[in-house]
Design a protein that fits this description.
This protein is α/β, with parallel strands linked by helices. It has 7 helices and 6 strands; from the N terminus they run βαβααββααβαβα.
């Protein structure tokens, strides 16, 4: 089974990316995980979490934190341009960037790869593989909108992290699960962790 690449950037709401990894592993999927340099800083400032940078230590960290032993997980340094996933010859199911900062989004839209996340996104576009981008910013300025448009034209699917209220969410976790499942709907994965719309109650 081909891997799914999950990238977490330095935008707020990395809990969504974290839950995406957990859900995939719980369903015995294979995950390639990349955190941007900024994501480590966000984890420290927003959540007081120190995530190891060294790949093996990071894999162990996520296994313990997410309490999941199933699936396959491989972690990468943000600057590892020699990684297998940096090459178009390495097959993947697709890539999800969640949350995606406007800096990362802008560089991908410009074809300017500074780190492994941006290089992997470029690979997915050039190989015509699914690239799901979940931008986390508000309000959007015209530059943001133009960059989003460029990526959509290039083949990326833009899925903002917007929850639904018809599910009658009771917790923040309910909201996060809705966002994550909808992200994977766009990738063709069918995870039944949410209440789906079946029409109005009568």
């Amino acid at each position: 089974m081909n891997n799914i690449v999950i990238a977490i950037t330095g935008a707020s709401a990395m809990q969504i990316g974290e839950r995406a990894v957990q859900l995939l592993l719980e369903n015995n999927q294979s995950v390639d995980l990349i955190l941007s340099k900024g994501a480590y800083e966000v984890a420290k400032s927003e959540r007081s979490i120190n995530i190891p940078v060294e790949p093996k230590a990071q894999c162990e960290f996520w296994r313990n934190k997410l309490e999941v032993k199933s699936g396959k997980l491989r972690c990468y340094r943000w600057n590892d341009h020699s990684a297998s996933i940096a090459s178009g010859s390495h097959k993947t199911k697709g890539m999800v960037i969640v949350p995606c900062s406007m800096g990362t989004l802008g560089r991908i839209a410009s074809g300017f790869s500074l780190d492994l996340i941006e290089r992997c996104a470029d690979v997915h576009l050039k190989e015509n593989r699914p690239l799901i981008i979940s931008p986390r910013e508000s309000p959007l300025n015209l530059i943001h909108i133009e960059n989003i448009k460029r990526l959509a034209i290039a083949g990326a699917l833009i899925v903002p992290p917007i929850p639904a209220w018809y599910t009658n969410p009771q917790t923040i976790e309910d909201l996060i699960d809705f966002i994550v499942v909808r992200l994977f709907d766009s990738l063709g994965e069918d995870f039944n962790y949410i209440q789906r719309w079946c029409g109005p109650n009568k």
